[in-house]
Amino acid sequence: MGLKTQLITVMRKFSGQSTAYHVRGSRLSDYGQDSVSSFHRDQTTKDTLSTCAKLFSQVPNNEPAIAAECMDHLVAGVDTTGDAMCTLMWRISTPEYAYVQDLLFEELSTIKDSFDPVRQTAPIAVLDKLPYLDAVIYESMRWRPPVPMTLFRVVPPTGAVISGQAMPPGTTVGCQAYSLHRVEDVFPNPDVFDPKRWLTNDAAQLTAMRAHFWAFSSGGRMCLGHNLAMVEIKLIIAAVYMYYTTRVTAGVTEESMRMDDQLTSGVPHALTCPLEFVAR
Question: Is the pTM of this model over 0.85?
Answer without folding.
Answer: no
